[in-house]
Predict the structure of Nitrogen fixation protein VnfA.
Amino acid sequence: MSKIGTAEWLDWKRLPLFSRYDAEASLVQMCDRLLEEATRQASGDDYIRQFLPQLATELSCQWCTLIERTPEWETLFEFGRNAAGGFPSHLCDEALDRDAAGLCVDENRADWSFMAAPLGDVRPGTILLVGGRDLNATSLSEAIISARALGYALSVVEQREKNLRRIKRLQTTLHIASSFSSARETQPLLELIAKEATRLLESERSSIFIWDREHKQVVACPALGVEGNTLRLPDDVGIVGDVIHSGKTICVDDAYNDERFDPSVDKSSGFRTHNLLCVPLRNNAGELIGAFEVMNKEKGKADYDDADAQSLEELGVQAATALENTREIEQLSRSRDQLTEQVKQKVQIIGKSSAITALRSTIERLAGTDLPVLILGESGTGKEVVSQSLHYQGPRANTPFIAVNCAALTETLLESELFGHEKGAFTDAHETRAGKFELAEGGTLFLDEIGDMSPGGQAKLLRVLEQKVVTRVGGSETIPINVRVVAATNAKLADAVRDKKFREDLYYRLSVVTLDLPPLRDRPEDVILLAEFFLAQFCSQANRRVLKISAEAKKRLQAHLWPGNVRELRNLMERVAFLCAGDRVEVEDLAFILSPARDSVVDMSADLSLKEASRRFQQEYIRRTIKRVGGNMSETAKCLGLHRSNLYRKMGQLDMHEANEGADDED
């Protein structure tokens, strides 16, 4: 193995230059400090104030300044005292033209000299100018080295300062953009965007111009000082029109001296525009949708520049995105409201009977609560309609309403359906799926035919109702839920509890409030109202005029016992609406649907004697006739073909309490 010789090292601070104290070493050391400090400073002004005195000392001058030709000579920074009073502009002009340092004696004071050195290409047009009594030609090399080092150092500081401003503006833009997400309506969002743009760009006012291509207009929002806060203008007028059609940014320092400026907006709002910056507004797809404008830079601030234009364009991208999102939200909200309203119109509890009147009143009181409700009633009495009324009349109206038919699901499927499952939880679980409880979050879950739920399903449902969390099948994460539960059944649930077929604790958890829906046969006064309601709906679907129901057809409808309840009546009206040949529903139109022979007033048990069955039939038939004519006993007797006194006698024989009530009324 070969030997490696000892390496020799020399670090920056041990350079011979740093150990010497002649003019050359001192100049190098000062330039080193200039460049080193440039990497730390964030302000060009502070940097020059710190190093200009050091430059004056290094160059052995009494006065030192930085001047810039714009096109007249303008003093940027100054240190010391200029004994000559003025300065030789011809020397400075020639120094720039030659790109060289120059020395001359002051024309008025022979003991005073000036030395000018350009800062180089990194700061074109800028001169380091010094004045003093002991300046000579040997100082020129020091001056040009110092000026060149200062130029590079200044460019580093100014770029750093520019980058810091850029970062700060980007941070501010991101912060502003995050505030846009809270807006749910377009007009408040536009006002927020305008407010934040004026703050970011240090302006007096700003406006967003949305391009209405169809009508060849731009809509200014907000248009402060204008009635309605909105102003419509032709899309080919003014600076905004130029920006929209060219897609290019326009910056104007003196608005009223620019021929493109349209003063009509100022006249409408009472505002006076001095300077402005207008950038194109583009959506996510890059399509031009309008213009974004700020006006009147705050007093004491420089006019709008490229950095301002870049910041406004970046804010415009965020604003355009927020506008599109807000419009989509508004559209979805309108669609949701329209759908909700359509459902509300269909979800109506029709009827004038005392039972239905009381039911509507109860629903109104319950709708604003989160109490669990158990709805009881025969099949077809409208249990789901009642549950929907509870939902759509309350504060959850704009949230999901999810219905589940418990009778249609096995215990295994019920758990997956209600609580969801993870991928691979069972053979057919090819993907993760949310359950009905999750889908109904914030809304209402309607559990129909709850009486048919298996014992295992009852236990799992009880746990969810008590803990208010669900766990998907095959998962371990508990998911909190906020769901109102409404259950329904056509079974006699109290009897099922007594027979140990339904959990008592679940029954009491579900039945905080119980609504018992009467069958349609017990409220014949509602039959015609319901029939006309359904008929109007289905005639609309059939694109025909609403059919009228003849008097005889109405009697036939009221005489029917409706074993299928409201559902049967609804289905009947649907068929009539599509199949009725005339403009009016006659008895003949109902004959093939409603057969008197099929009507069964009561559900007769097989073990009843003929006498008992006949007695029950007569009781029920008389009661229905009384309800149908609104309790008028004379009219009832007429419909039954009896004298009024004979009717009371018959009712007494049948042990009907209505006979005593009627006699009391007669007295």
Observations:
- The two ends are 136 Å apart (CA to CA).
